[in-house]
Amino acid sequence: MTTAKRSPLLSWTVIAPILGIAVLAATWGRESSSLMVIIAAIALGATVLAAVHHAEVVAHRVGEPYGSLVLAVAVTVIEVALIVTVMASGGHDASTLARDTVFAAVMITTNGIVGIALLVGALKYGTTLFNPEGSGAALATVATLATLGLVLPTFTTSESGPEYSTSQLMFAALASLVLYGLFVFTQTRRHRDFFLPVTPTGVVTEEEHADPPSGKTALLSLVMLMVALVGVVGLAKVESPAIKAGVDAAGFPPSAVGVAIALLVLLPESIAAVRAASRERIQTSINLGYGSAMASIGLTIPVIAVASFWMEGPLMLGLSSTEIVLLGLTMVVSVLTIVPGRATRLQGGVHLVLLAAFLFLAINP
């Protein structure tokens, strides 16, 4: 006697985003009670996990390095929408929210995602292997984008504060888009092999992967990924007052709000990176980490630059001296990690300590 196969529509990964949208509809534009805030937080967590699953299904269907690109862009859509939404609501901290969130995203991706992936991979396999050509190219792009978008505004003299003039902002936005587009072309076309996973036996080709999901399954996951992203953005907006209230109650500086947003929106990629590392696919984890950092700067800054024309107040992008030191140290350590093409648990630990230093100084500047 055979049992009926359960419909994929009854999977929790399909139900969770739909319930997330339902909770969003019930809470949007209303004064939420403590119970509803908790329910929204639970729905948000479940929707994020569902988004991870559907992004991985789509990624498996299209193959590497397109899969990492899909997830990086999807997460950046969440980040951009959330930043613009919160900035549009105003407040004395709106002018620095984009800077705080993007910088937090860069530190979390380059130190957190890469660090935990290296540590997990090294603990399981001894030494982690990756492609230094692809990883180095990605790191160089991240460093250039971070300098253009976050460091130079501190030192320009056209404006009195750590901000660009209109023409400078437009140049930085255009340069960011060009760099990001050039990297995507390199990653997916001309030198795609530089970004494929590496094992002791060589580069993993797409033929070595497990059978990809069917077109119907991938299409369902693509639709549900879009639904999940809408739910995550909306529920994060619902939760943002609670996040701000929690930050104020704890006595943390306003920049901690940006850190909280970055931690939230990068949760899907962090989970995906750890899963890839546990399967000896460190290159995929690095693609996710550096790809997210690139997308966070290369896509967020241009969108925020355009949105700033319709929003009141200045757009402060320049980092403080402490943040510049942390960013510079992160880039130096990352170069030393990437150049050999292999890493141990020590490198993973160093990056995680840098992340811990950033998080500590974010709440205790």
UniProtKB/TrEMBL annotation:
GO molecular function: potassium:proton antiporter activity; sodium:proton antiporter activity
GO cellular component: plasma membrane
Domain spans labelled Sodium/calcium exchanger membrane region: 35-188, 221-363
One Pfam family from the record: Na_Ca_ex
Its membrane topology: Multi-pass membrane protein
TM ranges: 9-29, 35-54, 66-90, 102-123, 135-155, 167-185, 218-236, 256-276, 288-311, 317-339, 346-363
Keywords, sorted A to Z: Membrane, Transmembrane, Transmembrane helix
Places the protein is found: Membrane
Predominant subcellular localization, coarse grouping: membrane
Keyword flag Transmembrane: yes
Name recorded for this polypeptide: Ionic transporter y4hA
